[in-house]
Amino acid sequence: MASRPSRSPFNGPRRKLVLAFDVGTTFSGISYSVLDPGRTPEVKGVTKFPAHDHISGASKIPTIIYYDRNGEVRAVGAEALRDGVQEQAEDEQWVKVEWFKLHLRSRLAPGAGQEVTNKIPPLPLNKTVVDVFADFLIYLFECASIYIKETHANGADLWASVKGQIDFVLSHPNGWEGKQQNQMRQAAILAGLIPDTPAGNERLSFVTEGEASLHFAIQNGLPTGALTKGEGIVIIDAGGGTIDISSYSRNMSPAAKGSFEEIAAPQCHFQGSVFVNDNARSFLQYYLADSPYVDDLEHITRCFDKTTKPRFRNASEPQYVRFGSVRDNDAAVNIRSGQLKLLGTDVALFFQPAIDCIVKAVQEQRHAAHKTISHVIFVGGFGASDYLLNQVTKVLQPLGLSILRPESHVNKAVSDGAISFYLDHFVRTRVAKLTYGKVCDTPYNADLPAHRARVSTVYKTLSGDRLVPNAFDIILPKNTQISEVKEFRRPYYQNWDADEFIQSLNSCSSSVWCYRGLLADPRWLDLEEDNYTQLCSIDIDLSKLPVEKQTKPAGGIYYFVKYDVVLIFGLTELKAQVAWRDKNNVEKRTEAKIIYDPDT
After folding, report:
1. To 10 degrees, the CA torsion angle through 163, 24, 268, 177?
2. Can you list the domains of the chain with their CATH numbers?
3. I need a labelling partner for 131 at 20 to 30 A (CA). Which of 37, 288, 561, 591 fits?
4. Contact, 579 vs 568, CB < 8 A?
């Protein structure tokens, strides 16, 4: 293992606090850093939560909320598991909400469709995922406030000195896109973490769980070859809901100053530990079908999750699920003294989809990567499973890969790594997950077969040009490496008749699309139409742009405006600007508002 990089002292003008919230499918964590001018920032974790006091150093709490019949929050996190809460919830008809994070996912992502929907508990009536997410953020913020005030010297004064000016980092699975980030931002605003103003929005940043995990690994020891030779690494963040696969290498150029670059498009798979439980539940429902203990299916599955699953190491040995008392017996299904006996080979099958998924994903990363990959690093709560690690190692190690798991608490990798992302900013180059472009009408060219094939769709514009509709103008191809400062710029124009112009004077929009299929060079919407989706629209304020008055070929006036849409894909969040030339030919720019398609 190589030593961790050094961190520079904070050079800001005044004290700051950074909070990172890792809202996981099953467990959530909080990390933070107090930034004092002239001092080197440290990553710290909240290790004490309400109703978790009896657990020394507890670093994560269950991602659970109970609502009463009026939609009011009654219990959250570890409080939801206190003795008596379940009975009270049943008596008062509270609604238990868990796995709600998965409701945020893009339904268009691979493997995220109806099959996953069927496995996710529904949200309460009259509650959106943004509502629930906001309620949970409120709770995490309160936990952070209490912990910092109680554990730091002069903690109350410290909190008072930063309250209202806190920066937040929210982590999310690799498969989340702009729409999901926007929903998380709305939840942060609803929770009162930030105001919905430009300054408030600047205080919130996003990082993928894969990139956060890389930062954690850098600070907790990477293989020497990864730091000194730039050897490629795959980060496997195996969590409760998703398994996020990301690949990086250190940029060895002297000018890069030790920064890292993403070397393959990241992946996100819905094969986290909750789906091991789901496989177990399906098996037990069939296995116990003729036993009276089938009525205890949910309780037995929970007991499997808490004890049998994390302890499982050997498929050749029988496994036991203790769920009852000595009076619980059913020899026909191997239940004795409140303990269910299972074949180790059956339990192994519950894990197999996740193992196959990881092996396949790592091989795909090696094939697609811009550099050779030599190492695989496991983090995440599910990544702590010895069986999962050993089975993946058996397949990948013979392929020349070294497999390792940091000794530190891998279940805190994301929240700790999110703080490091904010402080250290190691990744400066990322890889496009999809092919991004613009659906446009292109000038008709009779010499091109693709144009002749669509001659029936050609139409004339106000200026007399002949255009073919539904062309796909690629702005950024999939798997392209892009730096954070790289701009992608496309010229566009709008024209209107006089009547239309008056109605469109204030604004218009330009849409960004993405292609999700397998074609290397997608160019037309009428080929694989289902694989093209509108990602977002860019709102353009026309009042700032110079408008030209033009004469139609057949006579009459129309209005014409031209501009460039500037897209920055290399950050952890898409940014857009509109650029144009004023009457003195000086370029002007303005930030553009991005509106995400609710169906992506």
Report:
1. -40
2. 16-209 (3.30.420.40), 229-400 (3.30.420.40), 435-596 (no CATH)
3. 591
4. no
What is the four-CA torsion angle of 86, 89, 95, 97, rounded to 10 degrees? Answer: -30
Considering Cα of 146, then 147, then 153, then 158, what sign does the dihedral take?
negative
Query: Could you give the 3-state DSSP secondary structure of residue 544?
Result: helix
DSSP string, 97-152: EESGGGGGS-TTSTT-SHHHHHHSPPPPTT--HHHHHHHHHHHHHHHHHHHHHHHS
**pLDDT above 70 as % of the chain:** 95
Q: Give residue 6's pLDDT.
A: 79
Residue reference for tokens 């013979």: 398
What's the count of helices (H) and strands (E) in the chain, helices before strands?
16, 30
CA dist 387 and 392 (Å) reads: 9
| Adjacency order of strands within the sheet including 73-76 | 73-76, 64-67, 95-98
Residues 518-551 as b or e (16 or more Cβ within 10 Å = b):
eeeebebbeeeeebbbebbbbebebeebeeeeee
User: Residue 342: its pLDDT value, please?
Assistant: 97
pLDDT value of position 227: 87
- 273: closest CA among 470, 589, 25? 25
Contact 567, 536 (CB under 8 A): no
- Write out the H or E segment, with its range, that includes residue 371: none
For residues 123-151, average pLDDT = 95
DSSP 167-187: EEEEEE-TT--HHHHHHHHHH
Catalogue the E-assigned strands of 363-518.
373-379, 402-404, 427-431, 435-443, 459-460, 466-476, 481-483, 488-497, 507-515
Q: Are 514 and 437 in contact (CB under 8 A)?
A: yes
In 3D space, the residue among 174, 107, 177 whose CA is nearest the CA of residue 514 turns out to be 177
Q: Cα–Cα distances in Å, from 534 out to 59, 108, 117, 380, 570?
A: 40, 11, 22, 33, 19
Report the distance separating Cα 259 and Cα 596, nearest Å: 31
Digit-coded pLDDT (tens) for 565-598: 899 999 999 999 989 988 888 999 988 889 987 6
Give the tokens for residue 35: 């930034």
Q: Residue 55: is its pLDDT beyond 60? A: no
Give the pLDDT confidence of 146-161 residue by residue, as tens digits.
999 999 989 999 999 9
Measured distance CA(129)–CA(176) in Å, rounded: 14
pLDDT, tens only, 17-50? 999 999 999 999 999 999 999 999 999 999 888 8
The model's pTM is: 0.92
In eight-state DSSP terms, residue 542 is G
